[in-house]
Amino acid sequence: MKKVGIVGWRGMVGSVLMERMITENDFKRFTPLFFTTSQAGQQAPDVGIKTPPLVDAYDIDQLLDMDIILSCQGGSYTEEIRPKLAAKNWDGYWIDAASTLRMDDKSIIVLDPVNRKVIDNALSDGIKNYIGGNCTVSLMLMALGGLFENNLIEWLTSMTYQAASGAGAKNMEELVAQMQTIGNMASPVLENPASAILDLDKNVIETMRSNDFPVQNWAVPLAASLIPWIDRAMDNGQTREEWKGFVETNKIIGRSDNPIPIDGQCVRIGSMRCHSQAFTIKLKKNVPLNEIQAMLAENNDWVKVVPNSKEDSIKDLTPAAVTGTLTVPVGRIRKMNLGDDYLTAFSVGDQLLWGAAEPLRRILNIIL
Ligand SMILES: NC(=O)C1=CN([C@@H]2O[C@H](COP(=O)(O)OP(=O)(O)OC[C@H]3O[C@@H](n4cnc5c(N)ncnc54)[C@H](OP(=O)(O)O)[C@@H]3O)[C@@H](O)[C@H]2O)C=CC1
Ligand SMILES: N[C@@H](CC(=O)OP(=O)(O)O)C(=O)O
C-alpha cells in the first residue's frame, strides 16, 4: 500500500477532511503517517486503524519516505518544505490546501467533477503538485459547471457573501462572541415589552461601536454588519480574493490562454461556514431557461437546482440549510431585464467541504 503523509490534519480544513475520510473509509486504502509542527511523539488521531505516533513535520527524511504528502498546514509550511523535497529529488505527489502553488506552471488546481480531464492529462504528463482551489471559485464551478461545460458564458460577475470560516477558526469564534455581546447588552431592552424598536436599534449600534466590542481578529464588527474586503489589495483595485475568481477559474477549466472575463466584489458576512454568491451571467446566446436548468442539474452529482419560488429559496438556498452537506444548491435562476442573454442565479455551498476538504480527499483517491 502507498504511504501517505498527512500534515495539518487538526486544523479547520484538516479536521473536516479527517471526518470525510473516516466516513468514506479512505484510510483502508493506504498507510497513513500523521505529521505535526507542534506535537511530535504524541498519539496520532484515531482513524480506525493503528498508526504510529505523530512525526515532526519538519523532518525531511521522514517526508521523503512518503509516496504522497497531503498538507492542510498552510502556505508558510508549503513555502518552506516543498522546495526542500524537490531539492532532494522527491518524486512523490504533493496535495495541498494552501494557495501558494496554485498558479505555478507545475501545479494543477483540482476540482475533479469539473476538471477531471485536466487532472488525468496532468497525471499522465507526470505533474506532481495537486492543489485545492479557492473556496469561492470551487463553489462557483460546482454550481455553474453546466454553463461552463457547454461553453455558454461570455462573461460573468460573482458578488459574494462569504462566511467567517474562510478567515479561520479564531475569526469564527470572534463572530459568535460579537453576536453574544450584542445579545447580552440588548437583553434588557428585548425583555421589556414596553420598549420602542428605536431603543433596541440604538442599544445594538452603541454596543458595536463601544471600545469593549471584541474586534481583535476582524478589526471591525462583523455581527450585525458586513465587511466589503477579503484578503489583501492587488494593484488594480481588486482584492486578492476577487483576483482569484478570474485566474483560478480559468486555470481550473483549462482556459488560461483564452480566459473568460470574471470579476465581482467579495464581501464577508456573518455566516459561519457557507459561502453564497449572486451571479450576473452574460450568455453567448439566448438559451431557454428550462434548457439552462437541465444543463446545471446534469453537470455533477452535488448541484441541486432550486425552483425560483419564495418557499423553495428560503428553505433550500441558505447557509442554514446547506452547512455540513455536500449539496451545492443553485436557484433564483431567471433571465434579467437587461436582455434575454443575461442570466442571474444565486448559489450556496459549504466552504470547508467542496470549498476546501472534498477536492483534496478526491484527488488523493484518484492518485491512489
Ligand atoms: N479556512 C479555509 O476556509 C480554507 C483554508 N485553506 C487553506 O488551508 C490551510 C489551512 O487552513 P486552516 O485549516 O484554516 O488552518 P488552521 O489554522 O485551522 O490549522 C493549521 C494548523 O495550525 C496548528 N494549530 C495550532 N493550534 C491549533 C489548534 N488549537 N487547533 C487546531 N490546529 C492548531 C495545527 O498544526 P500542528 O498540528 O502542526 O500544530 C494545524 O494543522 C491554509 O493554507 C488555508 O489557506 C484553503 C481553503 C479554505
Ligand atoms: N480566502 C477565503 C479562504 C481561503 O482560505 O482561501 P484560499 O484557500 O484561496 O487562501 C475566504 O476568506 O473565504
UniProtKB/TrEMBL annotation:
Residues given in the record as NADP(+) binding sites: R10, G11, M12, V13, Q73, S165, G166, Q351
Catalytic activity: L-aspartate 4-semialdehyde + phosphate + NADP(+) = 4-phospho-L-aspartate + NADPH + H(+)
Name used for this protein in its record: Aspartate-semialdehyde dehydrogenase
Enzyme class label: oxidoreductase
Role noted for this protein: Catalyzes the NADPH-dependent formation of L-aspartate-semialdehyde (L-ASA) by the reductive dephosphorylation of L-aspartyl-4-phosphate.
Provenance organism: Desulfobacula toluolica (strain DSM 7467 / Tol2)
Coiled coil: none
Assigned protein family: Belongs to the aspartate-semialdehyde dehydrogenase family.
Keywords: Amino-acid biosynthesis, Diaminopimelate biosynthesis, Lysine biosynthesis, Methionine biosynthesis, NADP, Oxidoreductase, Threonine biosynthesis
InterPro entries found in the cross-reference section: Asp-semialdehyde_DH_CS, Asp_ADH_gamma-type, Asp_semialdehyde_DH, NAD(P)-bd_dom_sf, Semialdehyde_DH_NAD-bd, Semialdhyde_DH_dimer_dom
Binding-site residues for phosphate, renumbered to this chain: R102, K244
Pathway the protein acts in: Amino-acid biosynthesis; L-threonine biosynthesis; L-threonine from L-aspartate: step 2/5; Amino-acid biosynthesis; L-lysine biosynthesis via DAP pathway; (S)-tetrahydrodipicolinate from L-aspartate: step 2/4; Amino-acid biosynthesis; L-methionine biosynthesis via de novo pathway; L-homoserine from L-aspartate: step 2/3
Domain Semialdehyde dehydrogenase NAD-binding: 3-122
One of the protein's GO biological processes: 'de novo' L-methionine biosynthetic process
Annotated HAMAP family: ASADH
Subunit and interaction comment: Homodimer.
E.C. designation(s): 1.2.1.11
